[in-house]
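task queued by scheduler; priority normal; single chain, no ligands, no partner chains; default sampling; output format set to structure tokens
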Amino acid sequence: MSTRSQLRFIQRSEPADEQSETDRIAQIYRHSDGYPDGVLRDLVQLKELLDETRTERGPAYAAAQFLFLDTLSTMTLYVDEGRDRSIHADHPSDLLEPDNMEHLDQPMFLLGHGVENPADGIHGDEEYLYVVELPNRNPFEEPSEWTVKVSGHSAFPRWDGPTEEAFERASWQFHGPLEHALEELVAEPA
């Protein structure tokens, strides 16, 4: 079963409580694993990578990098090592060969994401909404904290058709630093 979600990456105004409608927004759709446990772990992994490499460049880049890392992490589910024409790590360009995917009905690593127009809102079948607030900073400064908002499960208007109103009317179960969201909302592995 898919857990669909929408993630908005925004540039946080300073101070954070003075957000304006002109803030830059990049919005993505995630078809599967949209529950907080999966999304928050992926956001922490992304932030750690961007901090270490000093490659945080704002909402559009963070959204693109999130999609790229998420696609990489799910690709192995669709690579069949037992086939004559399997895809190997030393030849990642093999993924670009359609013949290497003919055994796949629908490769979700190609279908599981979308870049959304923030003005259109959401599809209406998502279960979670997220807002990732990136600091307004020079990329060469020391890394700083990301803030996240996590909606309650289906705690926003849901109907067919676009709705900006979903983000405005959502009930947020968490709003604060990413690290705190992970501590509060993600169960420790058994």
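post-processing summary
- Residues 64 and 115 are 9 Å apart (CA to CA).
- The two ends are 22 Å apart (CA to CA).
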